[in-house]
Amino acid sequence: MSSEVWIIGSAWPYVNYIPHLGNLIGSALSADVYARYLRLRGEKVIFVSGSDVHGTPIEVEARKLGVDPQEYSEIMHKIVSELFRRWNISYDNYTSTESKIHIKYVQEFFLKLYERGLIFEKEDELPYCPKDRIFLPDRFIVGTCPYCGYWPARGDQCEKCGALLEPRQLIDPRCAICGSVPEWRKTKHWYLDLKKLEQDVLRYIESNDRLPENVKTMSLSILKAGLKPRAVTRDNRWGIPAPFPGAEGKTIYVWFEAVLGYISATMEYMERIGRDVNEGLKLWKNSSTRVVFFIGKDNIPFHSIILPALLIGSGEGYVLPYTISATEYLMYEGQKFSKSNRIGIWIDEALKIIENVDYWRFILIYIRPETKDSNFSWDQAIDIINSILNDTIGNFIHRVLTLIKRKLEGRTPRVCKLESCDEKVRDDALKTFKEVENLYHSIKLREAVHKAVDIARIGNKYFNERRPWDVLKFDRELGESVLGVGLHLVKMIALSLYPVIPDSMSRLWRMMGYSRDILEEGWRSGYEPVPAGLTIGDVSPLFSKVDRDEIRRRLDALMKDRAVRWSRKFPWEQVIL
Ligand SMILES: [Zn+2]
Ligand SMILES: [Zn+2]
């Protein structure tokens, strides 16, 4: 075990709605798999995230429902936390941007940037709705597109022709919330002078060889175009009050405070385990700490440029991200996930159709959009459960364990006599196991899972050809050893897949007769066979097939029910009740 600490962060979900499968794969689930892999290696891991609860969309959503934004976001935070718990996401601290430690940390942090001359004020004219009494962010002002005549084009972009717009360009602009004609009002904002930090961020991106291609390419192209000052304040009421002199009534723009949540969440974690919050802060200033983020590709600039710029700008010697894993997009049956068009499956709904969360975790990592967009389809998902999980992996494991149970009185075998064909199979599997390790190490989670399935394929082929039940009849020692090789492969599968399907693989670990749990034995134990003489526990199939028609039926019912559910005040009330 090494002495450094790994801080794993997954993107903070914006909780005006709950995450869908595409959101989950890029952030929470991928991060969880990697965090579990590191723990399996005996590393010290602090895995953090939280709900991003401030800002206009939540304020507007709460107003629509006639509740206070605070109350609304507390309920949403509870629901999302509970769903992550059901998805077995092993956060050490899942908090929210309303946490007291976060608010205090953010205010002190921005005041420091202000004192260091990195924040300046500027006056602007922005659209204001006199009826809702708020300044309208770009997405909350609509009008006719000046290029194609489409209505309602948003203040930042026309959905129809794709033109990038400024709210000023819209013809006949309206408030997207109430339809009123907005006024243009003068307002002052505080800007972060990103230009001053550009060179330092560029040096960081260029010198970090661990950053994957997609992160590096996007970051460099943004830096090449040049960084412009960005407003860090908003005229929202619902947010963290801006600490700058004269900025009363302004709040910090959510994007600039949520990214600092990784640090405040680490501090809060320390407090929760009975230590000092400053120990959490010290970890972020310790050069041996490794910070790894898991995000969707739309989040790249905030994690690779904005956060590093903030941390460098503070002059406090923070560590910068060790690496950032950014997924491409997951499509749903060939289309983009979209709430307004009701395309996709949300993480509460998914568990109503297939209850076993390990099945979902396996499917999603198996199709993880790692280097290019990938597609979720029900047909493929069912195939993955039935033919990969059940027939290939589950079947091999079950064959090995039941043979040991029946033929060897349930005692794990002695590997004492191997022929060259047996040694070859064992060595092939060990080589594959080592490849799985390397793939996890470079955060190629999808490839790691595919490689792990190969170990089961090697095992099935081996048993079909070697027929250990026959070998046992004429050479007991050799037959036992063949079963021992099979069991060693089962152990490699258990370790390889534990990060992805932890419940099933922990169960398998107990079946194999270990008294210590899988985390205590650890990843490296996979290079050694299972010790002889352990007692195999109760053996039952780990997975079972799902019925295609049944899945279709459930899906149809869910879609019918959706119109009713989504029209409710809180469509997910049942989650926390
Ligand atoms: Zn247009
Ligand atoms: Zn309005």
Description:
- The protein has 577 residues and is an alpha/beta fold.
- The chain has 4 domains: 5-116 and 198-223 and 251-351, Rossmann fold; 119-192, Beta Complex (Methionyl-trna Synthetase, domain 2), CATH 2.170.220; 378-527, Isoleucyl-tRNA Synthetase, Domain 1, CATH 1.10.730; 546-576.
- The protein is built from 21 helices and 16 strands.
- Helix 12 crosses helix 13 (378-407) and helix 14 (420-441) runs parallel beside helix 17 (476-497).
- The chain is elongated, with a radius of gyration of 27 Å.
- The structure holds zinc ion (2 copies).
- One zinc ion (ZN) is lined by residues 145, 147-148, 150, 153, 158, 160-161, 163.
- One zinc ion binds at residues 145, 147-148, 150, 153, 158, 160-161, 163.
**Helical coverage, percent range:** 40-55%
Uncertain parts = none
The second-level CATH architecture of the largest domain is 3-Layer(aba) Sandwich
Q: Number of DSSP helices?
A: 21
Approximate shape: elongated
Count of the separate structural domains: 4
Question: Which CATH top level class of the largest domain fits?
Answer: Alpha Beta
Strand order of the largest sheet: 3-2-1-13-14
Largest sheet: 5 strands, parallel
- How many whole angstroms does the radius of gyration measure? 27 Å
What is the tally of beta strands?
Answer: 16
| CATH fold-level label of the largest domain | Rossmann fold
Structural class: alpha/beta
The end-to-end distance, rounded to whole angstroms, is 42 Å
